Amino acid sequence: MNIVVLVKYVPDATADRRFEPDHTVDRVDVDGLLSELDEYAVEQALQIREKREGEEIEVTALTVGPAPAEAAVRKALQMGADKAVHVVDDAIAGSDAIATSLVLAKAIEKLGAVDLVVTGLASTDAGLSVIPAMLAERLGLPQVTLASVVETQGNQVRIKRDTDAATEVIGGTMPLVLSVTDQSGEARYPSFKGIMAAKKKPLETWGLGDLGVDAGSVGLEAAYTAVEDVTARPPRTAGEIVKDEDGSGAKALAGFLAAKKFI
Questions:
Q1: Sheet of 156-162, strand order
Q2: What is the pLDDT, as a whole number, of residue 225?
Q3: Tens-digit pLDDT profile for residues 147-164
Q4: Based on the number of CB atoms within 10 Å of its own CB, is 53 exposed (0-12), middle (13-18) or buried (19 or more)?
Q5: How confident is the model at residue 69 (pLDDT cuts 50, 70, 90)?
Q6: Of 257, 254, 235, the residue nearest 244 (C-alpha)
Q7: 139 phi and psi, to 5 degrees?
Q8: CA atoms of 223 and 33, how far apart (whole Å)
């Protein structure tokens, strides 16, 4: 069985994130890391391999991004993935979800016969959660998404999906696209042994030419959406202190909350 797990290199949410002059996110000169939600996808791919003991199962981590994005697949290798592919090309910069799904689909096709494509809930930088559906359409595969529990047997996949109104049980036949939520199971930390072993695992780098993708179909110019302007978050101002020296504190606090439409 061949499992491909998609991972993304995102700006660290605790760091100082910036935009390029063209209003795209700066992904090169900022601290970045493997998207936390994608760690759950890696974990579920590894658990599927571990639970199907005795079967020959290969887990490939795949990412699209600039040179620093290699850190995302390196982390997946340290967690236990068998090999990795990094698609990097200057023409990809500024791509929207539609173009990104095209590049990912072509990379998955180049990998050969794939039984399962596993993704996280969404990326922590964009939060769109549309790539799984787009990939399923491009690859002509069924999709089972937003899984909080994943079970496989033979070529069957069954998931539990928790919604606001109900809990759904959904099944599908591989090959298919699977997305998992952060409720699917805590992601493992790379062990020292895993970190050292990852250095010897294969990591291929592909460009658009390797995938047969026209540079004109990706990038900022080909995007269906565009950010027209960005504004820096204003600095935090001092809070208002309500004193109760004369017993009027409750009234002043209620007035403040009402003015802010909190009550």
A1: 149-153, 156-162, 167-173
A2: 85
A3: 999 999 999 999 999 988
A4: exposed
A5: very high
A6: 254
A7: -90, -10
A8: 25
- Tell me: the pLDDT tens digits for 194-251? 999 999 999 999 999 999 999 999 999 999 988 888 888 788 888 878 788 788 888 8
Residue matched to tokens 């504004």: 231
Task: Residue 89: count other Cβ atoms within 10 Å of its Cβ.
Answer: 22
Question: Tokens standing for 172?
Answer: 């599908």
Tell me the DSSP string of the chain: -EEEEE--EEE-TTS---B-TTS-B--SSS-EEE-HHHHHHHHHHHHHHHHSTTS--EEEEEEESSGGGHHHHHHHHHHT-SEEEEE--GGGTT--HHHHHHHHHHHHHHH---SEEEE-S--TTT----HHHHHHHHHT--EEEEESEEEEETTEEEEEEE-SS-EEEEEEESSEEEEE-TTS-PPPPPPHHHHHHHTTS-EEEE-HHHHT--GGGSSGGG-S-------PPPPPPPPPPPP-TTS-HHHHHHHHHHHTT--
CA 48 to mean position of chain CA atoms = 19
Residue type, 180: V
- Where do we find the tokens 């952060």? 182
Neighbour-count burial for 180-211, b at 16+ CB within 10 Å, e otherwise: bbeebeebeebeeebeeebeebeebebebeeb
